[in-house]
């Protein structure tokens, strides 16, 4: 099973998506007997690569967020110490 084949959501895989959809329209019966299987495999590989890239970007973003959060918590702790001593 694959995600919806919308080109605007998967620009990396646009060529493969178009070829896969064309194969399905050109071979309405043969598609059930493996005519478009090689394109499906390429499409799945492209989706995996796309997901991997998104996963790496999300991981980097979360690292930056955690660093900002730790700096903010450290700043709050220092402010609490200063207000407690006054």
TrEMBL record:
A GO-annotated cellular component: mitochondrion
Pfam families (UniProt xref): Cmc1
Keyword flag Disulfide bond: yes
Subcellular location: Mitochondrion
Keywords annotated in UniProt: Disulfide bond, Mitochondrion
Record PROSITE patterns: CHCH
UniProt-listed InterPro entries: Cyt_c_biogenesis_Cmc1-like
Protein family: Belongs to the CMC family.
Name the record gives this protein: COX assembly mitochondrial protein
């Amino acid at each position: 099973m694959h995600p919806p084949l919308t080109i605007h959501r998967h620009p990396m895989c646009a060529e493969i998506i178009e070829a896969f959809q064309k194969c399905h329209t050109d071979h309405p019966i043969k598609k059930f007997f493996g005519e478009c299987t090689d394109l499906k495999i390429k499409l799945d590989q492209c989706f995996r690569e796309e997901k991997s890239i998104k996963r790496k970007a999300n991981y980097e973003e979360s690292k930056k967020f955690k660093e900002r959060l730790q700096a903010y918590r450290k700043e709050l702790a220092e402010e609490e110490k200063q207000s407690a001593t006054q």
